[in-house]
Amino acid sequence: MPYPAGAERCNPAAMTVTLLAALVPIALLIGLGAALRRLGFLAEGFWPQAERLAYYVLLPSLLLDSLATARLADVPVGALALVLVFSTLAVAGLTLAARPRLGFGGPAFTSVFQGGIRFNNYVGVSAAAGLYGAQGVALAAVANAAIVPTVNVLCVLVFARFGTGGRPSALGLARQIALNPLVLGSLGGIALQASGLGLPPGLEPMLRALGQASLPLGLLCVGAALDFGSARSWIRPVAVASLIKFGLMPTATILACLALGLKGPAAVTALLFQTLPTASSSYILSRQLGGDAPLMAGITATQTVIAGVALPLVLAIVLALAGLG
């Protein structure tokens, strides 16, 4: 499909600057959360309540608002969505198949799994907008619509199987997925987008404000959960999760792009989103559903730092080899 004026090939230098500009505030917020916790600036009881607020109210508001109000004109919705869903499912399947060989316990595996397939929406939207302007925002909206529900359903299933909450029955699992606030927020936003109804004028600014609050609060909670005394035990799971995220996931995405003929800004956006570091919601989900939350915080913080080098490097190499930019 042809792209409108301004959809030029991606400039590697500009891409690197844009990505770093999106990543630096995230790293600083994580560091601030760690400092606030160590200094005892806030009562210990604040952090669990902040995590609960982010999980049940702020993050669902972010997903609902962003998906319901996305502008999708001149975007190859079908091909982009298929590339993202297929690559996510392929990597999730390979990660699950490799679990017996990895040797991680159930809760630790949930963190590795999330570190491999979840992504940071904030960095993705910021970087796509910086690279392609309004068209980038639309492409990012399609990416969110395609993989946010997919990733959340997969993660809920993995927590049900490997988390500390025990294995629910089939009915209990269906209920757990159907009532998950992140899944509900995603599906609600998609339904409003598909129906053309959008959000009522008074509700939209409220949801947007709540969603914007989810990003800094979630990252502060990630920083507060960092336990540097356990950092040595993170090395192997962090390495595995990062190899999946920055190696396996972009490889699967480029193969899907080639198979489905996706090129131009849509292909760049697909690769960008599938190579993003994992999000603060990974930690929130881990805390709420019985995963290894301290390990998840370590993966989140480490991947944010690694992404400063890995993101532009992976995108530049893959785009040069495949010629999809």
Automatic annotation (TrEMBL):
Transmembrane segments: 12-32, 79-98, 119-140, 146-165, 177-197, 209-226, 238-261, 305-324
InterPro entries, sorted: Mem_transp_PIN-like, Na+/solute_symporter_sf
Subcellular location: Cell membrane
Keywords: Cell membrane, Membrane, Transmembrane, Transmembrane helix, Transport
Domain of life per record: Bacteria
Membrane topology of the entry: Multi-pass membrane protein
GO BP annotations, alphabetical order: transmembrane transport
Pfam families listed in its UniProt record: Mem_trans
Family recorded in the similarity comment: Belongs to the auxin efflux carrier (TC 2.A.69) family.
Protein name (database record): Transporter
Source species of the chain: Methylobacterium bullatum
